[in-house]
Amino acid sequence: MPKGIYKRKPLTEEHKKNIGISVLGEKNGFYNKVHSKETRSKMKEKWKSRKESPDYKQKMKERGSKQSDSMKVLWNEGVYDTEEYRKSLSKGVIEVWKDPNSKFNSKEWRELQRKNALEQFKDPVKLKNYIDGTRRQPNKQENFLTKLIGEIFSKKFEYVGDSKVWIDGKNPDWISKDKKVIEFFGRYWHKDEDEKERKVHFGKNGYKCLVIWEEELKDIFSLSKKIKTFGGHDE
User: How many distinct structural domains can be found in the chain?
Assistant: First the structure.
């Protein structure tokens, strides 16, 4: 082997573990320290400059392509297309959302996500990319409600939950020409406080809002009466 060229042996799992242990806690040279504001600013600028470089973008593009190819192979082999895999994902998500101490249940996190989404959907370019990427279709419950609302009001309300209409960063499910919107909320994605937030949001933009929760579908008579009252239907 030529002088100055060394072939490093692959590290064993035990060796990797020992390296990790050797720099834990007080053994770490940066333990109980923080970067200064000036240093953080320099690091941020350096990282920003790196991300904008053509070489970095090309590298990330190639890496993404390789990961995409790997995912396609796994999908084709049926690794991800199994009931067991889907259940494991679903169980993990449900457990996280059920945990009251999870960051996903904190008011701060939910408010941050709400603000970020609103800002993104106010940008015409980002909104178009979102619409083109999702191609959302109504689910079974929304199809049922579209039929129910249509039976009550004929053509007064139009389903626009497929990203057809956006009001200040929010996409309602149904809308009427007299500035009324109807939203359908599932308990998996929404909490009680979301109803007030949505009504306030549309109210600021001159729209009255009715929120229908999934459990209300169990009592069609009461639900129909609620929709009629909201839409101004006279019987």
Answer: 2
